[in-house]
Structure formats: C-alpha cells, structure tokens
C-alpha cells in the first residue's frame, strides 16, 4: 500500500498515513503542490515552524519506464514567497517509489539546537542526531556517508548554504555515480536548513516495489515509450551528444544568449563554451560525454567533466550554468564554468540564481566581468563561509540587486532568469512572468518551439498561447516524474503520447484520456499553485518582468519585451 | 501664483508649471501622493528612471500658524515597493511655501556619472554639478554648505547611505539650529541617491510669501490655534518637558516596550533611558531640554543633547530611537543611544529601520545584545563605508532578516516596526498592517488613545475603528503640514478643530466643513495611495504582520496579535 510518511522535527516523531484515494493519479509536483496548498499557511514565514518540505516521486518513478524517475520537492519558497516545486534526477525518487512512499513530509522546527539526518528504508523512517556532518559541502558529505552506507544509497542533502538558510540554497540529490543533481530553484535548501535536516538518506533494499495495476500492459507501453524517446533526433543525437550545452550556439544564433548581465544577446566567444567544444574537451580528457542522471535513462544528456589532468570536476554541467557564467559573466571558457559549477553544487546553491547574482555583483562593481578567480573566491571564501558578502550573493540575484541598489536585475517573482533573454525569445519571458514558480525555464519551455521555427522569438504572435500550453503540459510532466526532455518526444513523436497514456493507465488502473492525463492534470496543478500564491500575496501584478526588460532594447535585434500587462494577464484570465 | 517646479536629471532641465486648480486644498502628502500616483508607473523599479521624488510643503506651511511647517517627501519606495510619504520638520517646507512652490518634482536619471546639487531661491531652481560634497556625512555637508551659503538656508540632503542607494537611507532636513531632522521612512534617500542629487539647498530671501485669501481671519484663527495647542497639557507640559522620550516609562507600563528584538514588552532598565532621565541629564550638562524643529513651534518637543564634556551630540533624540536601541538592542543608556542617533543622522539612515536591523543582527549572532561599541562600529565602519555587511544593515531590518535567514523580523510591508509592540498595543498593529505606508506609527497613532484609556491595548475591541479613524485623520494632518502632536489638541481641545478649519478656509478662500477638511481629505489621500499600491502588487495579503507576532505571546501580558485576516481586511473593505 502506498503511504505518506510525515516527519516532525518539533517532536522528532515519524507518522505513516494513508494516501487519500483522490490522489491516485497524482505524483511529483501534483502531490507536493497539493500538500503544500493544503497544509502550509500561505502567509507563514518560509523558514518558520509552519512551512513544510515535501518530497514526492513522479507517478511513474521506480518503474521500468525510461526517464520517469524525477523527484519533486515542494514548500513555500523563501525566495519567491510563493509555492515552489523543484525537481531533480538522481536515485531518491525511484527509491521512494519502490518503498511505496507517495510523499515524504518534513515539518516543524527542532526545539533543541541540534542537527539531524533522516534515514528511510524498508522498515520506515528514522531520525538521527548529527554533528559530524555539519559544515560539510555536499561532496565531502557523500564521502562520509559512503563510509557509513557503502555506495548504493540515495541522499538528499544541503551544503553550507542550506545550513546558513540562504534564499538561493538548493537541495542536492545523489545520483547513481555518486555525483550530484540539484533541486535548484527557490531556496528549498534553506527550508531544509531551517528544519536542521542536513541530509535524508535512502536505502530501498528489500523494498516492495511500485504497485502497477496492469504489469503486462505497462511493460509493452514502456518499451514503446523508450522507442519513442529514441526516435527523436533531438534526444538520441543532440541531447545525447552535446547535452543541454548544445543550446549555446543555438541561443546565440537567436540573439537571446544573456551576455554582460543581460545587456547583449550574443557573445562573441560563444564557440569557446559551446556544446561541441565541451564534447571535444571531455573526450580528449577521457571524461564521459554521456551520462545518465537516473538509472534507466535512454537520453543520457549528462556528462562527466574532467580537468586537464584527468581529475573529476563536475557532472551535469548544464547550458544554464555555462551561459550564465560563460557569457553573462564573460568567464569565457568551460574549465572556469566547470570549477564554479562544482563549487556551487558542493556549497549547495542554485547555479542559476547564483550565476545571475555574480552578474549583478559585476554590475555593482564588486568584481570585473570575466574575473574567474573572483567568482571562485566569492564562492569559496564568501558564500561557503557565510560572510556578509556571501549572505548577499547566497540570497540570489534579487537580494544582491537590493543590497547594491542595482536596477538591472534579471528576476521575476524574485527568482533569477535562466539563460534565455525574454527580449529575443519572447515566449519564455511570458513563462518567466506568469509561472507561479517565478522565472523558470522548466516551467513552460517555449524555446524548443522557437528553435523549431513554430514561433518567431522576436515577435509576440503565438507566444502567450505557447507559454500557457507548455506551462500546462509541464504541470503534468512534473507530476508524472518525466524529465523535461520527454516533452520533445511528446510534442514531435506521434506514438509518444499514446504510450505515455497507456503507461499512466496501466500504472494506476483506469482508462483516462490523454486530455485528462495531461491538460487536466496540468491545469489542476497550476490552479492549485496560483490559488496558494494569491493568498500569499502574489497577484497578477507580480506576473511582470523587471522594468529594464521593457525599456532597454537587446542587441543585435534591439527588441524589448513588449507584452502589455493586459496581455500577460490574459494567459490565466482567458 | 503657486507653481510646480519640475527638475529633470535626464536633461538637467528646470520647468515651472501651473498648479491644477483642483489641488487648491491639497498640500504635503495630498500633493506628493497625487503626483506619484499620477506620474509614476506602479511597477517601475524604484531606483530607475521612472520613479520621481516629490517634495511638497503642507497647505499651511510658511504661514504664521504654529506647528504647520512639515514637509512631505514622496516617491515609490525602494523599501516597501509601494507609495511612500515621509514628512519632516526643518526649514524647507516654510521656504518652499514662501517661494510659492506647491511641489518640487525631481525626476529622471543623469546620463553622465556625475553628482548634482539643486538650488532653489526667488529666481527659481538651478542645477549645479558637485564633486566636493560626495562621500560626506550630513553633518560635514552642513559645514561645507555653511561656508558657501552662510547660516540661513534650507537643505535636504543624503549621507553616504543615500549615495549607496540603501533601502533604509533617509533624507535629512536642516533645521533652524543647523541640526538635522529626517524624512526617515521608506528609503527615500536611496531614490534621491539614484538620481545623484546630493543636496537640495533653499534660500527664501525676497520670497513673495504665502498667498492667504483672508489674512485677517487667518491671523485670528492662528492665535486661537496656538492657544488650543498650549491648552493641552500633553503638549505644553509632557512633550515640552520630556519630548517623545516621555513614552519610555509609559509604554513600559503598558507592556509594549520592544525589548530583546521584540521578545519582551518590558525592559527592567527602562528608567535609565526614560524621558525624565534624559531631561535631567540634558539640564545637568547644559544642553537644551526644549528645542523647536521648525520656526514658530509652541510645543518644542525636540532637545539638544550634549555629551559629558558639554559637546553637542545630537538633536531630536526621539522615543523610537531610544526604545529600539536602548531597550530592543539593550544598549541601556542614553549616551549610547545619542551617539548612535547622531551617527544614523550623519550617515543618513532611518533610525527606526536601522535600529531594528541591529536587533535582527543581534538575533543572528553578529553581535551580542547590549553591545554599544558593536553598534557604533557597524554604523561607522560598515554602513558608512558601504561594506557588504553595511549594505545588509543599510537595507533595513527586512533585508538583514532575509540575508541571515531570521524569522523574528519586525516588519510590515518590509518596513520596520516603530517602538510599540502590536501584541500589547493592538491598535498600532492594525495601523502597521493596514497602512499603505508599511509599519509606521505616524500613519495612524492609536497609542495616545491607549494611554488615555479610551481602548485597552491588550484587547481587540475598538482597535480596528480607532486605527482607521487615526489613519484618515493623519492623511489630513500630513497634508496640512501639521505636526503629529497637533493630533492631541485636535482630539482633546474643543476649540482646536474649529480654529484649524478657519485657518484652512482663510488660507484657500472658501467655506469647507470640518468633515471635508479632515475626513474628506484624509480618505482621498488613503484611497489614492491604496490604489497605487494595488497596481504595485501590494494587496490585502500584504496587510499582515509577521507570523511570530501571531504565534509568540509577549510577556508580561502574554498576548499575541490575534486579529484575523478578515478583521484586518475590514478596515478598508467596510
């Protein structure tokens, strides 16, 4: 039987609760957002006793279906002040699902000034006092845990940033190589730190496994689903060969590659940080150009990046980080980006918000654009140590902008922009503005349709509907445990959606239509989140981009983000 | 003829415009809020080119009527994100009024990286490039200006905090003794700094004077008004003898004196920081126990505080500062408070927000409670120098709380609480929550009625209506140029309101009723401000106090702030 595990830090108790029957079709984001909306007072302090940190595996996680093993983490965000869901790969979703845990709720605040580890296995959850682990970065933490637990375990952990309750602190998720994925956005690591939980460890040895209503039907559909994924050249070739870094040259070509703190849309040294260059570099050094963030993935868009001497630096070096450090901060080379990426993972800060914060810090004159040593120093000596400057930068781009009185601050709902400038890729700007998540490319990724020529990024035509549609689809994708890139197959490969609907019905036992499985679920998620946000004080007036986006033309196309407030409001009002 | 002077930093131009006839009855806050609401896009960046800084003398400023010389400053606030009005005494309102300037609008941003001084005299306004003045604190600035202009001039200036565009930066107003008053709240100094205006100097030599429609009637009413003020024992005795510091013992007795970062409502060493002790200390040292912040004041609640050696330290050492540093940060003696007060005036930071930020910094462990040397060091070495920690503290209590992940942060709409705990003086909590200004005791001062026994501060009964009524009255008081304390006469002395209505009608020329002059004007002001705030994203969900106010009982009465959201919303919805 699936269950909910509720852990209270207030009295160090563990409770196991039944799953409400109406949640049968929910997983991931649908579960976290339902629980947060139901149980967390929208006006509470995000770091106070009333906030709850909820983890939920996607509906299909732990099954044999490929690319369905994402884990959702949810809470009221210390960064946006609204509801937050942030998903990651790694092992934990599959382990939770096999342990038949539909949701893990972490609530309350400890009465004593102690830190804790939560351990979850087939016998249930237990809470252990920890002192040895405090102050460790995420990589050092993995080492200590490996000494205790061997190699095969799941872990959701915070680095120093989460301990310091910084608003850009994230939650790291251990993957099958022992490297790190991130629940990056919205400061969920600060919520975990406020509850003084350093790490949640998982062991699914002896787990009962996922209950699948119709295993035979599921098996056939899973095979078809994998074939559909592999049939998409963008996945089996582009993503697999170059990872998300393939976007560097593509977004440069669109004129939407953030450069010099969102001042330009193209970066002349883009080739030096491109996916093609990254692949060549990795191969030449004996790293892994393909790598999966979760067991069973057929896309394998991750990679293992080594330094010149062949030593491991980082895994899963994403386009966002490459572009926001490489072009936007003008670091201009992949080794610099990789070192900073590793540090951000280790300290446990969101690489998008922190990279944008570095751009704002450069704008403020704290260090020059292009100063790699400066970025490394700020990460190691300031953020990791919780100095005043570290507190500012670890608070994200918005806090950095406020502290230094900067107006060119790329944030929506206080959350930093991913690496697509909304003046050249207007649909993504609609998503940044209108998503209940704040600026988040994964909340409604219109970039694929722009690259595919379905819309012109420089024009408003079609962008509002495109953003809305992708936001709704993403609400479903995030609930099913699918990786974002499955969107590409779902959109382009005729068989993909059919197979996915078969998988869902075979998993739960029923006959839901594609409409119900996608649009119905996605709209439910978004409405739940928007209602929470309204009560938390985030209204349509927060569905806006910063003023400079609407006034400062972006070279080379010299467009501004020119949607009216009424047009933006029409996304959810129509 | 009254006029509007519009100064654009974008093209360094000065324009003189006529006053719309419908503004004849407006002054002060009614003028600043009207102009900000009309001309500033609610969603603009408060430090960007679209924000405007507006100064307007009260309707009666510059006349012979006592205690009517307040100046309103208004803009979109970098602290609250909403509309802001902050008033101060000093010379400038009277000078502007005598120069027949109904409003001074400072707009745009300079194209070049230069700083400016605006000078206003009978020949108009002029813009002068300044380099010598940059980096000076407000006291040193006065010295340099005195060398240039003599002793008799008005000045509105920013210290280092305003230059740094800190969200708690204020605007200093020179008074007739050459000491400083403050437009303290809401970060208006940052707006002035963003426009790179270091100081506005004023000289009313040869000014035409205020146009009074019926001078004879005005003269009679002015005499009656002064008598009404002096007839109030709270003004002619309490305020005059002890200044606002008379409140220390009174608020301690109510159990609402913020102590140890709003953890307790009483402070055992309250006698050491009381108004009585202050008066004795000042007299013993040869300072001035009474002093007027504006020429012609009959109350004279200000004072001149000297150190043990008889040297000037500060002027106008207010209850808020005494309580928030003395009790809430537990500095525990008046010399410590006076030194910090002088530094805050000099650097140009709001003493309420900065003192609360110190309390939050103590909560965060940055320095111990009671550490006077620490507070002085943070002011001199951090805030005044714009270090990272100075940027945090100069951003106010809210930013300090965010940077350090603290939940016990006494702010409403991001603005720090004055020195009345809303759990023991519940009406003031309603004002903090529901005022369009954010937490602001001067926006609707229910404390007088509580001390007078008209309401019980520990009970909810009568508080919602009391707050609403005082907020509306304050909207009028702030527009007329009246000092807050005239409220006491208006409430308690039967002749006061009659005389004030006579003054208003004699000034403008008309026959408005008391209802029109007070309730009508006050409601107009509040509605104008609330409509701006709604468009800026501040809804009823922002009319709330922080969670700890509703959950943590305040000793000794162990009350919480227990108004429901619906009750708070009823203030403006009913």
Short description:
2 copies of one chain form a homodimer. With 574 residues, chain A is an alpha+beta fold. Chain A is 42% helix and 15% strand.
Would you mind describing this structure in some detail?
The structure is a homodimer of 574-residue chains. The first copy, chain A, is α+β, with helices and mostly antiparallel strands. Chain A has helices at residues 28-39, 92-98, 138-149, 160-163, 188-194, 215-231, 233-242, 247-254, 275-285, 319-327, 334-347, 351-363, 372-383, 388-394, 396-404, 426-434, 447-451, 463-480, 486-492, 494-508, 514-535, 547-551, 565-573, and strands at 3-8, 13-18, 52-57, 71-76, 83-88, 101-107, 115-121, 124-130, 154-157, 171-174, 180-183, 197-202, 288-291, 302-306, 312-315, 411-412, 415-416. The first copy, chain A, is built from 23 helices and 17 strands. The longest helix of chain A is centred in the last third of the chain and has 22 residues, at 514-535. Chain A has a domain at 3-202: Aldehyde ferredoxin oxidoreductase, N-terminal domain (Aldehyde Ferredoxin Oxidoreductase,  A, domain 1, 4-Layer Sandwich), CATH 3.60.9. In chain A, strands 2-1-6-3-4-5 form a six-stranded mixed beta sheet. In chain A, strands 8-7-12-9-10-11 form a six-stranded mixed beta sheet, sandwiched between helices. Chain A has a three-stranded antiparallel beta sheet with strand order 13-14-15. The mean pLDDT of chain A is 96. In chain A, strand 10 and strand 11 (180-183) form a beta hairpin. The radius of gyration of chain A is 22 Å and the shape is globular. The A-B interface holds A 41-45, 47-50, 78, 164-167, 190, 193-194, 387-389, 391-392, 395, 399, 402-407, 534-539, 541-542, 544, 546-548, 551, 565 and B 41-45, 47-50, 78, 164-167, 190, 193-194, 387-389, 391-392, 395, 399, 402-407, 534-539, 541-542, 544, 546-548, 551, 565.
């Amino acid at each position: 039987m699936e269950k909910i595990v509720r852990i209270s830090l207030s009295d160090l108790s563990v409770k196991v609760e039944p799953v409400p029957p109406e949640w049968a079709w929910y997983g991931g984001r649908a579960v976290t957002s339902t629980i947060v909306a139901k149980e967390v007072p929208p006006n509470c302090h995000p770091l106070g006793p009333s906030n709850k940190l909820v983890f939920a595996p996607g509906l299909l996680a732990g099954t044999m279906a490929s690319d369905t093993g994402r884990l959702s983490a949810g809470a009221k965000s210390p960064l946006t002040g609204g509801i937050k869901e942030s998903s990651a790969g790694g092992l934990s979703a599959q382990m939770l699902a096999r342990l038949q845990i539909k949701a893990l709720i972490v609530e309350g605040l400890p009465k004593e000034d102690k830190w804790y580890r939560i351990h979850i296995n087939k016998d249930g959850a237990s809470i252990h006092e920890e002192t040895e682990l405090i102050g460790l970065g995420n990589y050092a933490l993995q080492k200590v845990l490996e000494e205790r637990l061997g190699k095969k375990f799941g872990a959701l952990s915070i680095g120093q940033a989460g301990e310091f309750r910084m608003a850009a602190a994230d939650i790291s998720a251990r993957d099958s190589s022992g490297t790190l994925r991130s629940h990056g956005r919205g400061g969920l690591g600060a919520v975990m730190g406020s509850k003084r939980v350093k790490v949640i460890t998982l062991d699914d040895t002896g787990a009962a496994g996922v209950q699948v209503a119709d295993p035979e039907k599921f098996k056939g559909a899973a095979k078809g689903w994998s074939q559909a994924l592999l049939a998409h050249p963008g996945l089996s070739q582009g993503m697999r060969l170059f990872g998300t870094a393939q976007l560097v040259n593509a977004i440069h070509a669109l004129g939407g590659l953030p450069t010099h703190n969102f001042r330009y849309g193209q970066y002349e040294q883009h080739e030096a940080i491109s996916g093609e260059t990254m692949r060549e570099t990795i191969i030449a050094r004996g790293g892994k150009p393909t790598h999966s963030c979760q067991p069973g993935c057929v896309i394998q868009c991750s990679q293992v990046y080594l330094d010149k001497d062949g030593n491991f630096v980082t895994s899963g070096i994403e386009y966002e980080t490459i572009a926001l450090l490489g072009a936007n901060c003008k670091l201009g080379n992949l080794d610099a980006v990789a070192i900073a990426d590793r540090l951000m993972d280790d300290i446990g800060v969101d690489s998008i918000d922190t990279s944008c914060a570095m751009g704002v810090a450069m704008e403020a004159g704290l260090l020059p654009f292009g100063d790699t040593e400066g970025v490394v120093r700020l990460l190691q000596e300031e953020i990791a140590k919780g100095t005043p400057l570290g507190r500012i930068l670890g608070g994200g781009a918005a806090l950095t902008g406020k502290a230094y009185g900067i107006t060119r601050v790329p944030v929506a709902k206080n959350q930093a922009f991913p690496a697509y400038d909304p003046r050249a890729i207007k649909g993504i700007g609609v998503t940044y503005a209108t998503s209940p998540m704040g600026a988040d490319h994964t909340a409604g990724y219109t970039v694929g349709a722009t690259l595919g020529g379905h819309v012109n990024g420089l024009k408003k035509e079609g962008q509002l509907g495109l953003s809305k549609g992708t936001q709704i689809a993403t609400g479903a994708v995030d609930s099913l445990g699918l990786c974002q890139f499955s969107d590409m197959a779902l959109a382009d490969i005729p068989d993909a959606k059919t197979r996915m609907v078969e998988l869902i019905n075979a998993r739960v036992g029923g006959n839901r239509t594609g409409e119900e499985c996608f649009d119905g679920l996605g709209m439910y998620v978004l409405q739940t989140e928007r209602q929470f946000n309204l009560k938390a004080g985030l209204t349509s007036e927060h569905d806006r981009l910063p003023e400079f986006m609407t006034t400062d033309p972006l070279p080379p196309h010299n467009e501004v983000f020119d949607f009216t407030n009424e047009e933006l409001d029409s996304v959810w009002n129509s």
